[in-house]
Amino acid sequence: MKDRIVLDASALPMHGMGAASPTWWATCAFMLIEGSGFALALAVYLYLMSLAPSWPMEAPPPDLWAGTWLTLMLIASVVPNVLVSRWAHRRDLRKVQVGLVVMTMLGIIPLVLRAFEFTKLHIRWDDNAYGSIVWMLLGLHTTHILTDVVDTVVLACLMFSRHADNTRRYGDVQDNCMYWNFVVVAWLPLYGCIYGLARL
Amino acid sequence: MTRDQGARVPLDVDISDAELERQLKETWSSKPGLWGAISTVDHKVVAGRYIATAFVFLILGGLLAMAMRLQLSQPEARFINPDRYNQIFTMHGSTMMFLFAVPVMEAMAAYLVPLMVGTRNIAFPRLNAFSYWIFLFGGILLWVAFALDTAPDVGWFAYVPLAGPQYAPGKRADLWAQMITFTEVAALAVAVEIAVTVFKQRAPGMSLDRIPVLVWAMLVMSFLVIMAMPAIMFSSTTLILDRLVGTHFYNPAEGGDALLWQHLFWFFGHPEVYIIFLPAVGMVSTILPAFVGRPLFGYMLLVMALITTGVLSFGLWVHHMFTVGLPRVGESFFTASSMSIAVPAGIQIFCWLATLWAGKPVYKTPLLFILGFIVTFVMGGMTGVMVASVPFDTQVHDTYFVVAHFHYVLIGGAVFPLIAAVYYWFPKMTGRMMSERLGRWSFWLIFCGFHLTFFPMHILGLWGMPRRIYTYQPELPWTSLNLFVSLSALVLAGGFLVFFVNAIRSRRNGLPAGSNPWGAATLEWATSSPPPPYNFRRIPVVSSLDPLTPGENELPVVAGLRTDRRELLVTSVVEALPQARESSTTDSVWPFWAAVATSVMLVWSIFTPWAVVWGSIPVAITLIGWFWPKGSPEDES
Ligand code: HEM
Ligand SMILES: [Cu+2]
What we know:
The complex is a heterodimer. By secondary structure, chain A is mainly α. Chain A has a single domain, classed as Cytochrome c oxidase, subunit III, four-helix bundle (Four Helix Bundle (Hemerythrin (Met), subunit A)), CATH 1.20.120. Chain A has five helices and one strand; from the N terminus they run E-H-H-H-H-H. In chain A, helix 2 packs antiparallel against helix 3 (93-119) and helix 3 packs antiparallel against helix 4 (129-159). Chain A starts with a strand and ends with a helix. Chain B contains 18 helices and three strands. The radius of gyration of chain B is 25 Å and the shape is globular. Classes of the chains: A mainly alpha, B mainly alpha. At the A-B interface, strand 1, helix 1 and helix 4 of A face helix 6, helix 7, helix 8, strand 1 and strand 3 of B. Strand 1 of chain A pairs parallel with strand 1 (554-559) of chain B. Copper (II) ion binds next to helix 8 of chain B.
């Protein structure tokens, strides 16, 4: 078959940002997958709760402070996170570098708090089904924080390397920021369940 | 580092076709040799392997089916002992569902979708390669376990408490659960790639209302995978946790619940059958027009029906649990929703019948299989409406009636269209036609063999024969029908044998196909057979639902892409307007190593939870190797 040229693409940019980039969509798809996972885990929590004669099962509700501090930390981290995303949009390399280092910190602190949070649940995963599901919820979310922190560290290294000043990298930074927002937002209903429903 | 560079780099304008093809070939080809083969990210090569591997699993699963039929051919037969029989039906069901049906449909998508939307590679080609290796390793894991006599023996849906720590000691159930993790990771990866390819890499002008039905079907399938697979990942993970570290999700003594397993499994399991069936709908809708000489009737209706089925499929799962004693109201609701899914299914059937009615059918092998599909699927649908009613289901639950029903919908509804699709796209994939004579033989053997094998199972079920029994007593009235079924299964197996012989022989000796042997209208036929590594010399521009018209010798295309790096077009979601010249990643061995590392971690974690901690380190290292930029032109922006 012969080609009849009807369109010229040579003036198009060599990488699109935001919704023009396939990685943005893939990040959304992964958030949808993981969002379904969180929703399902919450449904299981509610299901087990509906079966139990008393809730929490044979345990006091978890202490508030560790989880609440962590929640506040996470919510606060959204501000610098959004800023990093903006700087990436403006291709401001210095600020992005600083921002990524800050975001790494703001990812590690919740992990430390999370370690305390586990001890303040007052139940082990193998005590009963209530223990199993709260450990599951917390574990699932911890994995998300952890993967995002690792991702942020790798990105930070990249942004200090010779590959840094590239639209593609700034796009990666923005996608990483979007994912962190997801990790924060996904935590809120979990927090409500683990700490709120256990006190009803 | 932006546009102005375009002036100095080689573009695909003002050069001869031959020179352009030479440059593209150099940029897009994989290296020769073993490492080249391992690191390739060409969606056609990867999907080809995927399809071939899935068919190998079909053969293995089919051999197990024949073993079961041998054992059941006479009462109190001694060919297979009860323990082995349990392993065999579990292996058969799991292999067919998780290692054949879902992967083969996803692989067809990975092969066809990029070609049909007119792009040069699937989105995230390395993820695609990773997915294949994970799938392969998961399948090998299950079959090695079988060879070592530790295959799962708890049925393909692994109900607790049978699969729990109390009744299933040893590692058999864990191997099942971990095989699930492998196949689901693989499936999710392909689903994301397909969704993004359809959203962002369609040829300019291919607006939503010009997307081929098959591509729509694959898109809906991807969303079902994305929404349903987390349920099975969650349940298989919690099952392993119950067995390994003593959680109590499914232990009623400690506040857990056995029915929770069934809810979770079927919340995935019902959409699963549509993950298998919707691609088949797309295949039928695409193949049919080419053999009746007229366009498909009711494009819009079919697309709506696909989406409706996809949404409804999440509201039906409880019909697998009618006999567990749920509240009446709930059961009535799920009866109603189960019957309502017959509406979109009916619409699809009527669209196909209308297409057939208004056209002049040419009875080539693909069309034969489609007609066989319509007949068989309608019958399976009717028994489906029957078992959707609670009193009837209570009677036939766990009998051969159900075995008959689901083979009618699985084989009739998905395998027949799949075989039609293989006959239809084989020329595109290999450049050669399959033999029509052997094709007819395979059709009649498979069609007759199928009905002779599975129709009597309805009757056996009504006569009370339970499924999953390794033998029965001679006093029971099942003997002669079982022998008949087993003999018919030989005919069915013979049909498959002819099909495979045909495929293998035609690959070498088939008649040359040319680029568009069926006179079809979708874009994959605009390029040579088999397509070159870059798919299209220039990316096509689409201005109607049927981009190719018979007799037309020119293809409207886009120019202005670079030839020195793997480049394709990214377009907008709704109207498919060009947005960017995006690069497509180069070959890499890292996806392979990442799959090896992931497999080690997953298998190890059957034995100790610490595997997740230590095993994730190599996974992280391989992922960094995968994503770290290597300074190739593909990284420029
Ligand atoms: C090649 C022809 C096939 C034959 C002769 C066959 C035969 C059988 C038989 C006899 C059983 C019942 C075993 C028992 O309950 O004791 C069975 C179960 C099953 N088959 Fe097939 N089958 C075939 C192909 C397929 C295909 C293509 C699929 C899926 C795509 C499939 C999916 C299943 C499933 C899911 C089960 C249930 C396993 C379980 O009970 O855990 N089969 N098959
Ligand atoms: Cu169902």
